[in-house]
Design goal:
alpha+beta; Rossmann fold; seven-stranded antiparallel β-sheet; six-stranded antiparallel β-sheet; 30% helix; globular; glutamine amidotransferase
Length: 482
């Protein structure tokens, strides 16, 4: 019993930072490129989108006659290799990295979803959360179903929609989906992409050697040498065939206000991606500069919790003329070992993942900048470690407003009661984490930093104002008992 408790405690401590973070649903990618090695290109694109999902990875490739796929649990580098990629020959490929927000992390829920029925072949990769999936799923009661994700429900809804061609089925099915969905799909000869009319999750279009590519973020284009062209518009449905784009139409947006996820700028997207014509690094840097005006402090050094707060910390430091530096080194590989450490190492907790530099900390007043506080457990432990290693004062600056409400549109957030800011005021949080001061960026400051209009963003996790009427009892396993 003692041994079991020690083991579970070790895992809890090692994964503190990962658990504390808010996770996006998925990263998706698509390419239509006759004559190119689309499987290998997709592999590298998925590698650059790994931050959006680390539970499983997959791709489907079509040569015009057959559609083949590889899907498995694990990171991109463990799912794909030279041998299995060499077997995926074709001119269309769609790929997916998954973090489960609807449906468990099982092999049955790995994407892309591949449907083969009555001589029809179709594959689909989805980022987001369709909140009426249970209602849609009730229409398929007689269908034998092994998966429990909203993405399979979307695929089945398209398959069963009126129309003889896939483009007709997509046009007829898409208006019935409520929630967040950026989708890349393909048949044997065509690739499709469409986005919910609220435009909640990102989806962009690029060109590679004259061919078309699609991705959740532009960082994927940089990796494969593609050029960013434009974002897929909210509600837009496109078809790519014979290397030409056909805009099939738009999902009715009557009464649907554009609501791009503001948290993409805070944490979810890579800093080198461009979202709505704004470089994410610049948005985060500006958030730090605005935070410096809202909550200045006299200190010796500004540092970030690696790596999510770095851009904002640079902005904060530059605005106040305080040196920016590192006080902790992150061990990026500790979470990938299957070897259990000795007991005394287990007890070190967060130090396994973040190693403080005592010589720099000694007697200093330090400002730590981070993207958000979710449960408060990680930042509390980090403050404790930094003070134990000689820091005179620790001032915490968060480059987003307090996260008080759960997300239902593709970000895996804890229940409201597990969000520390929904249970405690800022003064009480400061006391809980034992910081010398604590300040969050205002919502207006974050909106300003994003460079977007305040009426074009979803701020629900901060404000509780959801762009779509939601069932607050919704949970990620909602389809498993259906």
């Amino acid at each position: 019993m003692v041994k079991k408790n020690l083991k579970s405690e070790y895992h809890k401590l090692v994964d503190l930072k990962r658990q504390e973070a808010l996770h996006d649903h998925c990263g998706i990618f698509g390419i239509y490129a006759p004559g190119e090695d689309v499987a290998k290109i997709t592999y590298f694109a998925l590698h650059s989108l790994q931050h959006r999902g680390q539970e499983s990875a997959g791709m489907a490739v079509s040569d015009g006659r057959k559609l083949r796929g590889i899907r498995n649990l694990g990171l991109v580098t463990s799912v794909f290799n030279e041998n299995n990629l060499s077997k995926l020959k074709g001119f269309i490929a769609i790929g997916h990295n998954r973090y489960s927000t609807t449906g468990s992390n099982t092999k049955d829920n790995i994407q892309p979803v591949i449907l083969a029925s009555k001589h029809k072949v179709f594959s689909l990769a989805h980022n987001g959360n369709v909140i009426n999936a249970k209602m849609l799923n009730s229409q398929f009661k007689h269908m034998k179903r092994s998966a429990s994700s909203d993405s399979e429900v979307i695929t089945q809804a398209i398959y069963r929609a009126p129309g003889s061609k896939w483009r007709e089925k997509i046009m007829n099915a898409a208006p019935h989906f409520i929630g967040a969905y950026s989708i890349i799909a393909c048949s044997k000869k065509r690739m499709y992409a469409f986005r919910d009319p609220w435009g909640i999750r990102p989806l962009c279009l690029g060109r590679l050697k004259g061919y078309y590519v699609l991705a959740s973020e532009t960082c994927a284009f940089d990796t494969i040498g593609a050029l960013f062209e434009r974002d897929i518009k909210p509600g837009e449905i496109i078809e790519i065939y014979k290397n030409k784009i056909n805009i099939l139409g738009y999902i009715d947006n009557l009464g649907k206000k554009p609501s791009f996820c503001l948290f993409e700028y805070v944490y979810l997207a890579r800093p080198d991606s461009i979202l709505n014509n704004m470089l994410v690094h610049e948005a985060r840097k500006k958030s730090g500069q605005i935070l410096a005006k809202e909550a200045p402090v006299k200190a010796d050094l500004v540092a970030a919790i690696p790596d999510s707060g770095t851009s904002a910390a640079i902005g904060y430091a530059s605005a106040l003329g305080i040196p920016f530096g590192e006080v902790m080194i992150k061990n990026r590989y500790i979470g990938r070992t299957f070897i259990q450490p000795e007991q005394h190492v287990r007890e070190l907790g967060v130090k396994i993942k973040f190693n403080p530099m005592k010589q720099i900390l000694e007697g200093k007043k330090i400002v730590i900048v981070d993207d958000s506080i979710v449960r408060g457990t990680t930042i509390k432990k980090i403050v404790e470690i930094l003070k134990k290693n000689g820091a005179k004062e620790i001032h915490i600056r968060i480059c987003s407003p307090p996260v008080k409400f759960p997300c239902y549109f593709g970000v895996d957030t804890p229940n409201k009661k597990n969000l520390i800011a929904s249970e405690m005021r800022v003064k009480k949080i400061k006391k809980f984490i034992k910081a010398d001061s604590l300040h969050y960026l205002s919502l207006s400051g974050l909106v300003e930093a994003s460079g977007q209009g305040k009426n074009s963003l979803c701020t629900a996790c901060f404000s509780g104002r959801y762009p779509i009427k939601i069932d607050t009892h919704f949970n990620k396993h909602i389809l498993e008992d259906s």
